[in-house]
Design brief:
Blueprint: H1 2-25, H2 31-56, H3 63-81, H4 87-106, H5 108-113
Helix pairs in contact: 1-2, 2-3, 3-4
C-alpha cells in the first residue's frame, strides 16, 4: 500500500520535473503555464510521498492523505480513459492502482495496523467485540 502511494507520488514528481524543464528549456506554447504546471505537479507529488512514508511507519495520520490522493486519481483516470491513443493505457493503469490502493486502505487489517479506532471506541475496547 505504501508502495502504491510512493509510485503515484514519484510519477507526479517526475512528470512535474519534466514539465518544468520543458517550460524552462523547451519551446512550449506558454512557458509560464508549463512552469506553473510543473511546480504544481511536484507539490502534488509530495503529498502521496509523505503519505507513503507515514504508512511505512504505521502512522494513523497517513491514511487520510493516501485516501484523498486515490479519490482524486479516479477522475483523472476517467479523463485519461475517455481520451485517445497512449493516454488510454495510462488511464487503465492509474485506475487499477487507485482502486487497489483504496481497497488496501479500507481493509480492517490496515485500519488496525495503523492504530485507528472506531468512533466512540476506547483504547481498552477489544476489536473482537465489534
Amino acid at each position: 500500500m505504501a508502495g502504491l502511494s510512493a509510485l503515484e507520488g514519484a510519477a507526479l514528481v517526475i512528470g512535474g520535473v519534466a514539465m518544468l524543464v520543458m517550460g524552462l528549456l523547451g519551446r512550449p506554447d506558454s512557458p509560464q503555464q508549463a512552469e506553473m504546471g510543473g511546480l504544481t505537479l511536484i507539490a502534488l507529488g509530495l503529498i502521496p510521498l509523505f503519505a507513503a512514508r507515514g504508512l511505512l511507519q504505521r502512522r494513523s495520520w497517513s491514511r487520510g492523505p493516501a485516501l484523498i490522493t486515490q479519490i482524486i486519481a479516479l477522475p483523472v483516470a476517467w479523463t485519461l480513459l475517455r481520451s485517445q491513443g497512449a493516454l488510454i493505457p495510462a488511464g487503465i493503469v492509474l485506475a487499477a492502482v487507485a482502486l487497489t490502493a483504496l481497497y488496501q486502505l479500507a481493509r480492517p487489517a490496515t485500519i488496525e495496523a495503523l492504530g485507528i479506532r472506531r468512533p466512540g471506541a476506547t483504547p481498552d475496547t477489544d476489536s473482537a467485540d465489534a
